[in-house]
Amino acid sequence: MTVASDIHNPQSAIHILGIRHHGPGSARSVRHALEALQPDAILVEGPPDAEDVLPLLAHSAMQPPVALLVYEAEPPKGESEQRPRKSVFYPFAVFSPEWQALHFGLTRNIPVHFMDLPQAHQLVLPEPDDRRPLTTDNSTLISNLQPPASDIRHDPLKWLAEAAGYSDGERWWERMVEQRRDGTDLFAAILEAMVALRAEADAQAPPAPAEQLREAYMRQTIRAAQREGFECIAVVCGAWHAPALADMPPAQSDAGLLKGLPKIKVQTTWTPWTYGRLSWASGYGAGIGSPGWYHHLWQTGEAGLTSTQAAIAWMTRVARLLRGADLDASSASVIEAVRLAEALAALRGHPLPGLDELTEATLTVLCFGDSAPLRLIHDQLIVSETLGHVPDDAPTPPLAQDVAREQKRLRLPPEATQRLLDLDLRKPNDLDRSHLLHRLDLLGVPWGKAERAAGKSGTFHEVWRLQWQPEFAVALIEAGVWGNSVYGAATARAREAADRSLDLPALTHLMDRALWADLPDAVAHLMDRLQAQTALASDVSHLMDALPPLANILRYGNVRQTDASMVSHVVDGLVARICIGLPGACASLNDEAAVAMVERVIATNGAIVLLQNDEHVAAWQTALRQMTDMQGQHGLVAGRCCRLLLDAGVFVSDEASRRMGLALSTAVDPPHAAAWVEGFLKGSGLLLLHDEALWQVLDEWVMALAGETFTALLPLLRRTFSTFAAPERRQMGERVKHGVSHPTIRAAVSTDFDVARAEAVLPLVVQLLGMTKDE
After folding, report:
1. 335 and 404 belong to one structural domain
2. Does residue 663 form part of some domain?
3. What's the whole-number mean pLDDT along residues 194-220?
4. Nearest CA to 670 among 624, 722, 628, 711?
5. pLDDT digits (tens, 9 = 90+) for 169-184
6. Final residue of a domain: which of 273, 308, 336?
7. Is residue 227 located within the same domain as residue 355?
8. What's the rounded mean pLDDT across residues 501-529?
């Protein structure tokens, strides 16, 4: 059966409008063709699963870019309820031909239907590398969905562009199609070109099985529309599929191909989308390089602007953006840039300037040859991060509805662009915002990423970097298995994670997150798990890893208005067990284990100092002293323990010097001595600069090393000194350069006193101090 695609032939029953999925020229041509045809029905390449939500497209609150989201409603029997659900997006922009075709039909009460293979079948088809057997009539066909090796199928536009003398298929299509303002004869030319391309591709390799299934279903949909009595049917599909729909085989072959396809239950909704996700750089298979530019072409075309006016409008937007970034962009420069773009287009034989010419003119005139501002123009204008909006009455899972309510209540709307949010946890609204962001993070929806509050004092500041991603809609659907509200779902998710975790540090980290998210029910469950796991834990390193998060809870929990006292007895038990087991855990460590242990010792010391508990501090310092006196202790650990005791005031400078002298004596193996020095000095050279005794001991040890030994230890010493700040290293180098091995600063002392002059000052000193002469 052959169908016509000539829109000027009113006798043709079916009219194939082959398009590219996103482009203002294609969209405008489709609309003009539909206005000329006035069809009885419109069939569009898209998921028939979405028929129920299709009328929402014409809703006044629907603002593209948006996407149809089709997702697996429930997992098959026998599979986990918690596994990720399969889903697929169908994005639309205002300049998408499908959007214009659907909007045309819905606003004129013309029957509109999707005609692609339903996602209820596509989502369950095996992946290209999946070889699981299927028990359907067409299992031979769909058991191997590996696409055929055909360059033409991979990028058909490239072949047409090369034939026309272009090196880039994207630019050729934009020049020939997207910049058109009429396009009435476009579809016949597209069909003719695609027929030739597909004939060449079929000669190289047969169509992919998935492609065969999709096109068979499209043809069956066309036949069904004919049986319903529609006389004039407009079919809007990807240009590649146009030949397969214009020359249809017998219906029996398509029916046999589609018989017995596996199927799952799916649900569909609308979700906001962004132009950034519409670009090919996001990984979208049908993406375009410049959605923001295409939006501009559509707007100017709808406003009836000429090509020169469209170029001026674009350059005006570029200038406004540059001025907002404090860059020079005068009106005279805008006029000069437009003239340059038109001149470039004329030199290249183009009827009007395109994005390439406008970008080159921008670089030359407005950016003064500096390519750095072009990145800003690319991100904000050429691609753009415009976020669409869907009506409130669009079908939405309960969890997503609760998130939307919380966003509205907290005045925290989702935005596609990144922005910093500085929260003051002393304010109720900011505290609730923090709870929401932490709860969503627990649910696998990282809307915000916590950052360090640079320049902020106090513990009541939180800084978040927010950016809403369209994929979060799928994440919220998957998280719906935990509950219908953010609080309930986050609580259930935290409890489930606690039940599955057998690792003590992971439990304490989860406890920290649950407190930040203000989930008291989850915290109570976590406390039970922590107590049980702590009683069973015998690995001191795990106990040490678990302590810092709990210390943060005890120290800062009340800033977030949470009751953190419930973890205090767990912390008491952890500290006691760490102090008792630490010396044994540090025996016979190799170099790699010693490095890891030193990091744990430093973190544990910081946690205990943070707790400000005298009993904990005394027990910890006793353990550290025991570590410094242990025979056979790794030098790195012993040196760091000695340094911590010196910083805490337990060891005075003379004691630290004595211990360094013992560690660096000739009786000690040089590698052990070098490790001791690294542990003692790592991270700060100020101690060495200001303590003359330590400098002298280290200097004498280095000077006493034999040449071969010094060469062998040099990498260890360099590693230690590399951790010092540059000014510290410079001062040390100057000391060594001037030959001052142990500088001694002595004040000149004079014993000649003028007693009479000294006594004359005493009455004034007594008066200043408020004392009497007798005192």
Report:
1. no
2. no
3. 85
4. 711
5. 666 776 676 655 555 5
6. 273
7. no
8. 82
pTM beyond 0.70: the answer is no
pLDDT of residue 748: 42
Residue matched to tokens 């068979």:
216
Alpha carbon of residue 281 to chain centroid? 15
383 in the Ramachandran plot: left (φ > 0), alpha (ψ -120 to 50) or beta? Answer: alpha
CA distances from 635 to 537, 629, 705 (A): 28, 11, 18
How many residues does the structure list for the chain?
775
Kindly report the average pLDDT of the chain as a whole number: 80
Find out whether 384 and 295 touch, Cβ atoms under 8 Å. Answer: yes
Phi, psi of 537 (to 5 degrees): -70, 130
Cα torsion angle, 425, 431, 435, 440, sign: negative
> What is the distance between the alpha carbons of residues 271 and 396, in angstroms, rounded to a whole number?
9
Nearest residue to 553 via CA among 582, 521, 510: 510
- The identity of residue 485, as a single letter, is S
Mean pLDDT, residues 271-291:
78
Q: How far apart are CA 367 and CA 177, in angstroms?
A: 30
Count of C-beta atoms within a 10 Å radius of residue 308 = 14
The single residue listed with the structure tokens 């005192």 is 775
Model confidence pLDDT, tens digit, residues 688-712: 777 676 777 777 777 777 777 778 7
8 A C-beta contact, residue 490 and residue 517: yes
Residue 62 sits in the same domain as residue 126: yes
Which strand ranges, in their side-by-side order, compose the sheet holding 461-466? Answer: 419-424, 461-466, 448-451
The angle, 0 to 180 degrees and rounded to 10, between the axes of the packed helices 24-37 and 97-107 is: 30
Let me know: does 265 contact 74? Beta carbons within 8 Å. Answer: yes
